[in-house]
Design a protein that fits this description.
Layout lengths: L2 E12 L2 E9 L11 E4 L6 H9 L10 H5 L16 E9 L9 E13 L4 E11 L22 H14 L4 E3 L2 H10 L5 H10 L6 H5 L5 H12 L2 H17 L3 H152 L2 H83 L9 H72 L2 H7 L11 H36 L6 H12 L6 E2 H8 L3 H10 L1 H4 L2 E3 L4 H5 L14 E3 L24 H46 L3 H69 L2 H59 L9 H7 L4 H22 L2 H23 L5 H4 L8 H39 L8 H5 L2 H57 L16 H38 L1 H6 L1 H9 L2 H26 L3 H27 L16 E3 L8 H18 L6 H13 L5 E4 L9 E3 L8 H24 L8 E4 L8 H13 L4 E5 L4 H4 L4 E10 L6 E6 L3 H11 L1
Parallel strand pairs: 3-15, 3-16, 9-10, 14-15
Antiparallel strand pairs: 1-2, 1-4, 4-5, 5-6, 6-7, 8-9, 11-12, 12-13, 16-17
Helix pairs in contact: 7-35, 8-33, 8-34, 8-35, 9-24, 9-26, 9-28, 9-29, 9-32, 10-20, 10-21, 10-22, 10-23, 11-19, 11-20, 12-13, 13-19, 28-29, 29-31, 33-34, 33-35, 34-35, 36-37
Length: 1444
């Protein structure tokens, strides 16, 4: 495959990247063969500039200059020296051998460009050249800087070298015509220019091969693009032309086929309508029969419904009567129910009252039994005490005799005992009086203590009040001192400074600072305004600069468009033909007049050839019609007019001569004697007069026509004129006409070719004239020069505006700083004023809150101190008094307690005195002989001891028994008093006579137990009665009150009345139920009658509605069956069935008729058969049914005629179909090869061994006949549409899709690790970074390989290197490029990439690495020159790996 070994660029670039003669070696250092190469240069260093010059050798128009594509302001002329020094680019190709076993050869292509700047325009001179390198003429032979020892300095010198080069290389080619250059590259040098042009689109954006190549959005677009790049363009164009020719020849075939199709479709609809109409007639008759039966049944149902309605009304009346009766009984039942409820409630109330009474009675019985039991126990105790008293009396009586001897001692003991008892009693009473006095003292002390406690509480409350007030005042004073200290600490107040002075000081300071603040703010506002003015001026200047830049861009675009248009016009063949030069000068004032002359000349030539064609065609027609040539429209017009006047002998004179004089020479001599006469019109002499009537008529003749008598005598010549003969005698001799007829087709073809050639040149001339005028209107008159001058002026203005903007911005920044400083000062003044105001407000708050009230507060604190001292003194006094009173109270209590104890002891001692005489005057005795208690105690003890001793000695056991009896009596008396306290003797006297107290107590216990049981039963009964009444009241919340008559009833009468009322209620309820049942029965009867009537009416209505009977109700009455609903339903069903059948048949007929009318209304039918369509559209439904047979017969006749007309158009169609079938078969084979044979090499990462394209479609499953049928349909569509795809590849793609009939399922390989995601449909490809780049390169190399294979079969060249601008912009992964290089090597595609990527791991996959760098700046030109340096990538890569 073709590869590039070296590239040279010199005298080209921009100031920052100037190529002053740089040679790029693209060969492998080891083998010297072309290899994949990286051109490395920093971003902005001139990579795209280099590729732009290289690509301009193949994509030559200025508007296709790569830098101009990227930015319209960049122009081709800007990249060359403007002093005429030529810029040169050379590309050395290593071409494959021309023959098998031959050696590759080297081909050098080049371009030299020189730009001369002038006031009017930039003069651009471009020369393209090529030669096959040999020993005499090599790559280095080109006189370029740093390449040849004698570089040229002007295009004149380069032209001399070109002249000399022709001597050294016979195949040296040079041209300034871009069309000739590209044709030379394609046809002579076998360079695949189209693929190189495609790469310009790839490089329009760095790394943009995906956006420039993957431009299809659907599978059809992909297929068109694929075949457009892989199929042979000439072959595809040839087939397309055949399709165009067939479409022209068979242009009536679509019309006839359309006629046949529409008539066949119409016949189908008409036949369907005919069958449907017949079915409708039969169904309609059956429907009428059922309709009449339904009318009779409707009348019978009406009679039945009337009778049933009468029965319904009777039953309804009876129902209403029974309903009224039921209501009355129901009301009576409710009344009795209310009375029963009231009586029952009264009964329950009485039961509750009775239970309550029983409970109260039981409670009384329990109390009585308990009291009785207590009284019996008291009587028993009283009887036992009486027994003890009796026994004691008996013992005393028994001992009385024994005591008589002891009387003196007893008397003395009793006397001393009486005295001691009385003395003890007196002592007890005295002690109790003292205890009472002590108690009074205690009470008084307690009252006083209470009073003192109350006073102390009041005093404590007052103290708390004062303390709270003191604390509040103290807190206020503390707050004052703290606030004052805080103000002093914060510097608000000076030490010892009055608040009034501070307020004045801060007021003055705030006023001063506010004034300063306002001044600063005014100053800042002024500065801000100045800043805004400066910013505005800067913006205006920047806007001016932007406008200037925009104007510059517009004018740059204008200049670029002018230069491109000028170059385009200079390359137009018609203009170069007019200018008689290699290139035309659109600015030459002589070019337009010369073009106008050429246009007129071509127009005349077209007219002349048109006349010639018309003459030849007229001759052809005349020979076919009359046997001779020379037919004239004017002659024919005159002949027709004469015959219209009745001149039957009128005929063209030449046809008369041809038949009258077969000898060509004689006929020629006769014609030459007077051509106007003998080539005019002949008439019989007898009709000449009538023929003269034509003279007055206005005939539309192009030339005069001689009408003369049919005579064969030659006219006498004249010496003052002569006649030249025609080239042949075909106009008046049949034999000569037949000879001419055999030559006419060739002469017609020649004339048509000449006319078409002149017409094409005329069209090109007119188009060129329009373009030239447009160019002159837009760009001539110094427009480009003015635009360039305007650009320079605008650039100067833009620079000045930018300088003004920068100066204004600096001024604005200065003003902003000053304004910021003034604002800061104003803010500081404002802050100071605000601080002063805050301090003043703080001092004011302090003065108002603390300072004003302080004297009053201090006075009050002093007063509170005095009051507190007084309160403390009073509290001390009260506390002391309360202590004394408490002590006195305690002392009195202790004394009272002690005295009461002593009194108790005296009482006890009295009780312990066993002997005492009753009635002894102890008081008088003691008053007469006072003795102390101790003496009396001693005397009593001696007397009692003496008596006891004597008694013990004399009485013995009797005395002991008496003592025990007395002690027992005392104990029983004390127990009785304790147990039966409060019981009166009369309560238990009745039971004193009881003989058996144990039995009586058991009887009382039993009685009490029985009474308890009775009480529990009564309580339960009361609870049950209350619960029952409560539940009843809850169930019957609204109960009428009992009447007096009810209240007067006793329990028996109440029960009887309640039973009677309940019975009456039940009877009323039963009567109501019976009435309701009877009402329901009548209601049911009415409902049944009504429902039956309704059913009859509904059935009649349904029949009437379903059958549509208003006009048929006079039918005979038909008695309905008992199951009339089913009868009617069945009849309706039968009618519906018949109607459905009828309607279905009618609907089918109407639908068929509508379809028929729809078919007739179709524009397609109206277009091809308007008469038939109009007749069908005018017909009504019934008329159409009657006329369908005749229409069908006529339609069949028309179809037969159309089929006969189409019978003979197949031969040309089949021939074209064969060519298209062969081409599509080749396309299918090409697509199958792409999908099955083109794979990624097995060693590639992720996708090794995988096909680049996959296709789901299986064309081998479609047979030959299927393909031809689909292609035939496609050709029919093209013929009908009269639109053939613009390109042969598009025609093939559309035909291929038409063959398969559905998407082909094409998928493209995507380089991802996940095998499930490695194929993506071509209509779903998304340009996603590196994946898109890899997919685009896969597709490009596949197409490149297929293109090379296709061109090789046709003995052409195809394929070539892939040159890209920084494809690493989106893909930097080494594995991606490893796969790309393996595929490129497998397909023998050379990769040449320009990039700034420093990643050696990525670019290390490439065999050659050319590093560019800036060599230095030329001080004379100010340009930075570039140079290529040796760079060993493997060493750098090893160093990078070591560093990593």
């Amino acid at each position: 495959m073709q590869k590039i070994s070296r590239i040279y660029v010199g005298g080209y670039g921009v100031d920052m990247a100037w190529y002053d003669g740089v040679t790029f070696d693209l060969t492998d250092p080891a083998t010297g063969e072309p290899t994949d190469t990286i051109l490395n240069l920093e971003n902005g260093g001139g990579k795209t500039t280099l590729l732009s010059f290289v690509f301009s050798c193949f994509d030559t128009p200025l508007e296709r200059f790569l830098k101009h594509i990227q930015n319209k302001n960049h122009r081709f002329t800007q990249y060359f020296a403007r002093d005429g020094q030529p810029g040169i680019v050379l590309i050395e190709w290593v071409m494959p051998p021309r023959t098998a076993g031959g050696q590759p050869y080297r081909l050098v292509l080049g371009q030299a460009v020189a730009v001369k700047a002038s006031a009017e325009r930039d003069e651009v001179e471009r020369v393209f050249f090529s030669f096959e390198a040999n020993s005499s003429l090599t790559f280095e032979s080109v006189p370029a800087p740093k390449l040849n020892w004698a570089p040229v300095s002007s295009m004149l010198e380069f032209s001399r070298w070109i002249h000399d080069a022709h001597k050294h290389s016979p195949d040296f080619f040079q041209t300034r015509v871009q069309h000739d250059w590209q044709k030379h590259l394609r046809e002579e040098r076998l360079i695949d220019v189209d693929m190189l042009k495609l790469q310009v689109n790839f490089s329009a954006q760095e790394g943009g091969i995906d956006t420039g190549f993957l431009t299809f959005n659907s599978e059809p677009e992909f297929i068109r693009k694929f075949f457009g790049l892989t199929l042979d363009e000439g072959l595809a164009a040839s087939v397309r032309q055949s399709v165009v020719d067939v479409c022209d020849k068979l242009r009536r075939k679509p019309h006839l086929q359309k006629c046949l199709t529409e008539l066949t479709r119409l016949r189908t609809s008409l036949l369907t309508f005919n069958d449907a109409a017949a079915a409708y007639t039969v169904a309609h008759s059956a429907q009428d029969t059922v309709l009449r039966r339904g009318a009779g049944l409707v009348r019978g149902l009406d009679v039945m419904a009337h009778e049933l309605r009468e029965a319904e009304r009777d039953a309804t009346a009876k129902q209403e009567s029974q309903t009224v009766l039921a209501k009355e009984k129901e009301n009576l039942s409710k009344q009795h129910a209310g009375e029963a409820t009231t009586l029952r409630l009264l009964q329950l109330t009485r039961a509750l009252e009775a239970a309550t009474a029983r409970k109260e009675s039981a409670q009384g019985s329990v109390e009585t039994a308990r009291l009785t039991q207590l009284c019996v126990k008291a009587a028993k105790a009283r009887v036992e005490i009486a027994a003890c008293e009796t026994r004691l009396t008996e013992l005393e009586a028994s001992a009385a005799a024994a005591r008589e001897a002891l009387e003196p001692w007893r008397d003395k003991a009793e006397t001393q005992g009486a005295l001691l008892r009385h003395a003890l009693h007196n002592a007890e009473q005295a002690l109790r009086a003292q205890a009472s006095a002590a108690g009074n003292e205690e009470t008084q002390a307690g009252e006083r203590l209470g009073t003192l406690t109350q006073d102390l509480r009041k005093l404590e409350s007052a103290v708390r009040t004062l303390e709270a007030e003191k604390a509040r005042l103290k807190a206020d004073e503390d707050n004052y001192l703290a606030a004052l200290a805080q103000l002093i600490d914060e510097g608000v107040l000076n030490e010892g400074e009055p608040t009034s002075a501070a307020l004045s000081r801060y007021a003055e300071l705030a006023t001063k600072k506010r004034s300063e603040e306002q001044q600063r703010r005014d100053q800042a506002a002024t500065l801000r305004e100045q800043e805004r003015d400066a910013r505005r001026r800067a913006q205006e200047a920047a806007l001016d600069a932007a406008k200037a830049a925009n104007s510059i861009a517009q004018r740059e675009t204008f200049v670029a468009e002018g230069e491109a248009e000028r170059e385009k016009l200079s390359q137009l063949p018609i203009l170069r033909l007019v200018a008689e030069a290699d290139t035309a000068d659109p600015d030459s004032p002589a070019l337009l007049p010369a073009l106008e002359r050429r246009t007129l000349a071509e127009e005349r030539a077209v007219a002349q050839h048109a006349v010639q064609l018309s003459t030849l065609q007229a001759s052809h027609s005349a020979i076919m019609e009359t046997g001779v040539a020379g037919g004239s429209r004017d002659v024919n017009e005159v002949v027709s007019s004469l015959r219209a006047l009745g001149v039957k002998s009128a005929k063209p004179f030449n046809t008369y001569l041809a038949r009258a004089i077969p000898d060509a020479a004689a006929a020629r001599a006769l014609v030459l004697s007077n051509p106007a006469r003998f080539l005019g019109v002949s008439v019989a002499s007898s009709e000449l007069t009538r023929a003269r009537e034509l003279v007055g008529q206005a005939l539309q003749l192009d030339a005069p026509v001689v009408v003369s008598v049919a005579a064969l005598e030659a006219e006498v010549g004249s010496e003052d004129r002569f006649v030249l003969p025609a080239a042949d005698d075909a106009a008046f001799n049949e034999e000569a006409a037949q000879v001419l007829l055999q030559q006419l087709d060739a002469r017609l073809a020649i004339a048509e070719g000449q006319r078409d050639a002149h017409a094409l040149r005329h069209k090109e001339a007119v188009t060129a004239q329009e373009q030239l005028l447009a160019y002159a209107k837009r760009f001539s008159g110094g427009a480009l020069a003015r635009a360039r001058a305007e650009i320079e002026r605008l650039r100067a203005e833009s620079t000045a505006a930018l300088a003004r903007a920068q100066m204004s911005e600096e001024q604005a920044d200065e003003y902003r700083e000053l304004a910021d400083a003034a604002s800061q000062a104003a803010a500081e003044c404002g802050y100071a004023a605000q601080t002063a105001e805050m301090h003043r407000a703080a001092v004011r708050r302090f003065s108002e809150g603390h300072d004003v009230a302080r004297p009053t507060r201090l006075a009050r604190l002093q007063a509170i101190s005095i009051e507190r001292a007084e309160q403390d003194a009073l509290e001390t006094q009260l506390e002391a008094e309360r202590g004394n009173v408490a002590l006195a109270k305690e002392t009195a209590f202790k004394r009272k307690f002690a005295l009461e104890g002593q009194a108790a002891e005296r009482l006890k001692e009295q009780q312990e005195v066993m002997y005492g005489r009753e009635g002894f005057p102890a008081e008088e005795r003691l008053r007469a002989q006072p003795q102390s208690l101790d003496v009396l105690r001693t005397l009593y003890a001696d007397a009692e001891r003496t008596y006891s001793t004597e008694a013990s000695q004399r009485l013995g056991l009797l005395s002991l028994q008496e003592e025990q009896a007395r002690k027992g009596l005392t104990e029983r008396q004390q127990a009785f008093a304790a147990e039966f306290a409060g019981m009166r003797p009369e309560d238990y006297e009745v039971y004193l006579d009881t003989t058996d107290f144990a039995a009586r107590l058991r009887q009382c216990a039993d009685t009490l137990t029985q009474a308890g049981h009775a009480l529990r039963d009564a309580d339960r009964d009361e609870t049950e009665a209350a619960t029952e009444r409560k539940v009843f009241r809850k169930d019957n919340p609204q109960v009428e009150p009992a009447t007096p008559e009810m209240l007067a009833l006793d329990d028996a009468s109440l029960e009887e009345t309640l039973s009677r009322t309940r019975v009456a209620q039940q009877e009323a309820t039963a009567a109501a139920k019976a009435a309701l049942s009877e009402s329901d029965r009548h209601k049911q009867a009415a409902r049944e009658a009504g429902e039956t009537a309704r059913s009859a009416e509904q059935s009649a209505g349904s029949l009437g509605a379903s059958l549509g009977l208003p006009d048929l109700l006079d039918a005979a009455v038909e008695t309905p069956d008992s199951a009339f609903v089913e009868q009617a339903t069945a009849l309706i069903a039968e009618f519906n069935l018949k109607r459905k059948e009828s309607e279905g048949a009618r609907s089918a007929a109407i639908k068929a008729f509508d379809r028929l009318r729809g078919e007739a209304a179709m524009p397609a039918l109206q277009e091809v058969e308007p008469d038939i369509a109009s007749q069908l559209l005018r017909n009504e439904f019934e008329a159409a049914c009657a006329d369908s047979a005749r229409l069908l017969d006529g339609l069949d006749d028309r179809i037969g005629t159309t089929e006969a007309s189409l019978a003979g158009m197949r031969e040309d169609f089949e021939a074209c179909l064969g060519e298209l079938h062969n081409l599509t078969s080749s396309a299918i084979a090409l697509l199958n090869s792409a999908c099955n044979n083109k794979r990624v090499p097995p060693g590639a990462p992720y996708v090794g061994g995988k096909s680049i394209l996959k296709m789901r479609a299986r064309f081998h499953e479609l047979g030959h006949d299927v393909r031809r049928q689909q292609l035939g349909n496609y050709l029919d569509d093209l013929i009908e549409s009269k639109t053939v795809p613009a390109k042969g590849a598009e025609l093939v793609a559309d035909a291929l899709l038409r063959i398969y009939g559905k998407p082909l399922g094409l998928q493209m390989l995507k380089m991802v690790p996940d095998e499930a995601l490695q194929y993506v449909a071509v209509d779903k490809i998304q340009n996603s970074g590196g994946e898109g780049v890899v997919m685009a390169m896969f597709l490009y190399m596949l197409i490149n390989q297929l293109r090379a294979e296709t061109q090789a079969k046709l003995k052409k060249a195809g394929g070539g290197p892939l040159i890209l601008d920084n494809p690493f912009a989106k893909a930097t992964t080494p594995t991606l490029w490893q796969a790309q290089r393996l595929l490129a090597q497998a397909m023998d595609v050379q990769l040449i990439f320009a990039t700034a990527l420093p990643d050696y791991n990525t670019v290390g996959e490439f065999g050659r690495f050319v590093r560019l760098r800036k060599a230095g700046k030329n001080t004379k030109t100010g340009r930075w020159h570039l140079e290529a340096v040796d760079f060993k990538l493997n060493e750098q890569r090893s160093a990078a790996e070591v560093a990593a």
